[in-house]
Amino acid sequence: MKEGTLYSEAQCTRHINGVEDALYVVGGKWKLRIVIALVNGHTRFNELQRTVNGISARVLSNELKQLEVNGLLQRVVQADQTPVVVEYVPTEYAKSLKDVFAVLADWGQKHKKKILLNDKA
């Protein structure tokens, strides 16, 4: 390992590949926001659309389909009710992202403070 590096070349490559794989699943403008809303109990389509500010119905629908394919949510249709109720329930796999959300939120808050302090300087 070179002096001053955190990882060996192989470790660096593994980290980059792992981040690329993670971003493939939860990357983009909306997916993390949707998963966070789901994990916090917002399960119906209109509820999600209100919670995730600025997302259109078409985009939300597409993102929900992709999250379902990747095992982060389950679409539950309650056809025995009138009108039919559709809910999007986070899987245990989605809940495994809880620590990732916490670290990202913490870093984001610190970064915002840092940037705002730099603007005032």
- Percent in strands: 5-15%
Characterize the overall form: globular
Give the strand line-up of the largest sheet.
1-2
Percentage of residues assigned to helices:
55-70%
Count of helical regions = 6
Order of helices and strands: HHHHEEHH
* Number of DSSP-assigned strands: 2
Class from secondary-structure proportions: mainly alpha
Offer a concise description of the structure.
This protein has 121 residues and is mainly alpha-helical.
What does this structure look like?
With 121 residues, the protein is mainly alpha-helical. 61% of the residues lie in helices and 10% in strands. A two-stranded antiparallel sheet has the order 1-2. The protein starts with 8 loop residues before the first helix and ends with a helix.
